[in-house]
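User: structure tokens for this one?
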Amino acid sequence: MSRPTTMSLRFVQLFVGLFLYGASTALQVRAVVGVSSWTVLTEGLEHVVPWSFGLITVVSSGIILLFWIPLRQKPGIGTLLNALAIGPSADLVLWLVPTPTELVGRVLLFVAGLLLLALATACYIGAGFGTGARDGLMVGLHERLGWPVWLARTLIEVTVVVVGWFLGGDVGAGTVIAAFAIGPMVQPLMPLFRRFPWSPVHTGAGVVAKDADRVAACASESRPTASPAP
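Assistant:
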């Protein structure tokens, strides 16, 4: 397989993963049973600034990337595309998908969103173009300050949940479930997205493959604390 073909297929995988990531976030929002930690913060900020959910996601990603500077993290092309693509895809799916009227429908929508989130995370990480802004923040705290990965992840996620909840974000049972479930769900999917012929593992892209391993470690080693209920 030629290098141009390999790169093209990796970019396709990246964009599919990022689109599905935004879509999964939107499904959790529409479920209204509690959302994952960073989404709680985004929802809370919707009560503060007159922007759409997607625009807040894009802007907050840019702000988070500023914290990479003292942590000496280097963004890749995937990092920048992550910051720019997830917000618009979330806005699109929020526009397309209404909130179910029945609790059963909302629970099913949340489960679908959580499954899609795990799939999307493994997909975009497996493309090997760099970590997302939030994942990179956790990795940077681990590598720069020597914090255990689980501690860095837990402190960050508890902080954003508390701030988001204070601002009016949706904290509920889904928030706790997502905190405990997403790591174990992502980890077994990672090898599946490295079996493609264009995977950086097979093409010798050692730097990006290592980068993916670092983010996978965040998912597998994290020990999140249950988020506070409203």
